[in-house]
Amino acid sequence: MEITDIRIKRVEGENKLKAYASVTFDDSFVVHNIKVIEGNSGLFIAMPSRKTRSGEMKDVAHPINTDFREKMQNAILEKYNAEVSA
């Protein structure tokens, strides 16, 4: 599966939340609302999630292996950093 498009929507303000990303795979499937967050160790992504009845947050969609998660995170953060620099 290849990432064929990444769109970044920056969030203004002094929050830890810096942007939302939409990622398209194989020009056929898109995942919206991936968060770009500033953590203590730098930027990272958080997958879209929803709150359950018990108050717990559960991912709606997520990579099932570490290699693909790293590939996706690197691509999103590269696109985010390019847009911040522009």
Automatic annotation (TrEMBL):
Coiled coil: none annotated. This is Putative septation protein SpoVG. Could be involved in septation. Pfam families: SpoVG. One of its GO terms (biological process) is division septum assembly. It comes from the Bacteria. Keywords: Cell cycle, Cell division, Septation. Transmembrane segments: none annotated. Belongs to the SpoVG family. InterPro entries: SpoVG (IPR007170), SpoVG_sf (IPR036751).
